[in-house]
Amino acid sequence: MSHAALKTRWLAALCAAFFMLSALRPAMAAPLLNAPPVGERWFGILVDNEQVGFYRQEITRLPDGNFRIEADGSVRMRVMGFTKEATSREVYRIEPTLGLQTLKVDQTINGTRSQLVGKKVRGGLLVKRTVEGKSRDRLFKMPGDLIPGPVLNLYPLLKGPTPGTVYRVQTFDPEELKIKEVKITVLGEAATPDGKPAIKLRNNLYPFVHNDIWVDTGGNTLLESVRDGLVVTKAATPEQLSAVVSGMALSKKDLIYDFSMVRAEPPLKTAPAKLTGLAVALSGYGPQLPLVTDGWQWVERMGDRVVIKTGRLRPDTTPAATAPDSRYLASVEGIEALAPAVVAKARQLTMGLATSEAQARALIDWTARSVTDTVDDSGGALTVLDKMRGNCQSHAKLYTALARAAGIPTRFVSGLVSQNGKDFLYHSWAESWLDGRWVAVDPTFGQMPADPTHLALFQGHTPAELAPLVGIIGKISINVLEER
Q1: Cis check: omega of the bond before 197, within 30 degrees of 0
Q2: Is the whole model's pTM more than 0.70, yes or no?
Q3: Strand extents, DSSP E, 160-216
Q4: Which listed residue, 1, 66, 76, 215, has the most CB atoms within 10 A of its CB?
Q5: Which tens digits make up the pLDDT trace of 389-430?
């Protein structure tokens, strides 16, 4: 065979081999996203199937085409001898390609509070850290873009989620105060353990263990699993998390305390117990949420704010309260007004008292004095009467049941209250129909009427009735308009 023929055959074989290899190599998948998906997402955090925290993230598009990420959460866990209690609020401004522009992080980790404010500058990330009033600037050098932690799972979807592809990105860890290189591997299409179609990723955020992630094609993280399910972050609806988050907020648990606290601006000048009236404006209280307007307080939407006036600052034009119907005397699950033990206790405490006002006062005083305060809700009124301990929900449910058993129409309400004049916290109390009007009473604090810082937002004691609470925790702010 001539040299030319050999050369031709060799070239043909080489080309054939090249095309065979090309056919075997997976084609690069097209990007599934061209920008972060906007919207709000909630997640539950579980350790060994026990709920230990929650996480909320919201992405919004800014007028200039960039994006804002708000991420809030709380967690308390003990795993393999390691204990962590953390609450954080993070705000990032990013480019459509996920590159970081600015950050602000407020966090409390194992009791230590700090604030970080940072921005991308030439050659790195400039961060100002403040702890206990002392600040320090630091420049973190970085070779390229930083991808914030809340959007790491989106990166492969913007680049192309080809199975087997490995992406290496830089991220800033606000807890460890360092820039980390994160390796993200695309494992391919794989359903979540409960059967939802997803793309499975894996990263090395945590040393010595796998961090597996399932994300759908729209950029929604469905599940994260550390060490084969020991620690799980799972997507949930606000309704699914409402019982947990609302319960923690009303219990004022450390897990959610910082996250749910609402600061009054400016702080009250008068101690709450000495106030006779209060006017405030709430911002961040969505238009889809109800307003409690029936008599005890005056409420009105004014633009994007909700104005509430209580006590002597209620306008004379406040509509007359509607007389209560039978539901406010009903015996229901959790408020067992007709249970023999509840009826007997109500009769014992109100015997010889001629007016509903005197009867309500006796029931409030006894409940506040006799039920031991605890962090957790003890359950329904009958259980609270048996255990004689519980949080504000427990006090309010027991008083409501006792009042109804005594023939006093009463309803369970929840909202905000201040004890120090600086901060408002979520709380439950009751309103009783006395002398032709609804009167706020607080069987936890022993107040009749309740002080004017009691701002009622929701009526009802069931998880479904308290579900809207999860939509405002961490979002609303209070501006004090007037105090008297």
Answers
A1: no
A2: no
A3: 166-173, 178-189, 199-203, 211-215
A4: 215
A5: 988 889 999 999 999 999 999 999 988 998 888 889 888 999
- Measured distance CA(184)–CA(247) in Å, rounded: 36
For the record, the structure tokens of 184 come out as 């993200």
CA gap 317, 474 in Å, rounded: 33
User: Do 418 and 453 touch, CB atoms closer than 8 A?
Assistant: yes
Alpha helices in 97-189 (DSSP H): 155-159
CA distances 213 to 75, 188, 216, 236, 290, Å, are 19, 11, 10, 15, 37
Is residue 134 helix, strand or coil?
strand
Structure tokens at 119: 């921005």
Q: Give the pairing of strands 477-483 and 262-265.
A: parallel
The structure tokens listed for 152 are 């790491």
List the alpha helices (DSSP H) in 223-307.
238-251, 254-260
CA dihedral 263, 269, 271, 274 (to 10 degrees): -130
Q: In 3D, which of 256, 89, 66, 261 has the Cα closest to residue 174?
A: 89
pLDDT digits (tens, 9 = 90+) for 303-343: 889 999 999 998 876 666 677 889 999 999 899 999 999 99
Confidence of residue 252 (pLDDT cuts 50, 70, 90): low
Name 50's Cβ contacts closer than 8 Å, sequence gap at least 6.
none
Beta carbons of 406 and 358 less than 8 angstroms apart: no
Is residue 123 over pLDDT 60?
Answer: yes
Greatest pairwise CA separation for the chain in angstroms: 124
